[in-house]
Write a structure and sequence with these properties.
alpha+beta, single chain, 7-stranded antiparallel sheet, 153 residues, globular, 7 strands
Length: 153
């Protein structure tokens, strides 16, 4: 199943100098989060949440689980490309990646997520500091949308 979202609202983040989390609301009325790398690419995206508080808890779960390489699974999609999932200790999906052409690229994506979260923690940022900064309530000029669902055989 593919979710089509034509526009969303996103809380405006601080200028991108490092990775950051973004929480936004899709046209479907549900809340999502992205983890963006320094280059602006989305490296991890959440499932849909019914409330912003749930999406915020999802970010906290990423921060808790992302440094454990055993929590990631690299999978093949039906079209032969690859993606990864990050799961919590209880086995629940926390987030997934974009599609990659090769398994090695997906594995590098895992390492990118781990490195981003390590850097956030090494800077001594309190949990969720990257998403709950001083710019809450502002809107981005460009639209965001969740990545399409991945069909797994």
């Amino acid at each position: 199943m593919v979710k089509v979202v034509k526009a969303t609202t996103v809380e405006a983040p601080a200028p991108l100098t490092e990775g950051r989390f973004e929480i936004f609301r899709g046209l479907d009325g549900k809340h999502y989060f992205h983890l963006r790398a320094k280059n602006g690419e989305i490296v991890l995206q959440s499932q849909a949440y019914t409330t912003k508080a749930s999406a915020t808890a999802g970010v906290a779960s990423v921060q808790t689980n992302a440094l454990n390489a055993a929590r990631y699974t690299v999978l093949a999609a039906v079209d032969g490309r690859f993606f990864f999932r990050l799961k919590a200790a209880n086995g629940q999906n926390i987030g997934r990646s974009q599609l990659y052409a090769t398994k090695a690229s997906a594995e590098r994506g895992v390492q990118t997520v781990i490195a981003l979260v390590q850097r956030m923690q090494s800077r001594g940022e309190p949990p969720l500091a990257r998403i709950l900064g001083t710019v809450l309530g502002r809107r981005l000029a460009r639209c965001e949308q969740p990545l399409p669902d991945v069909v797994v055989p």
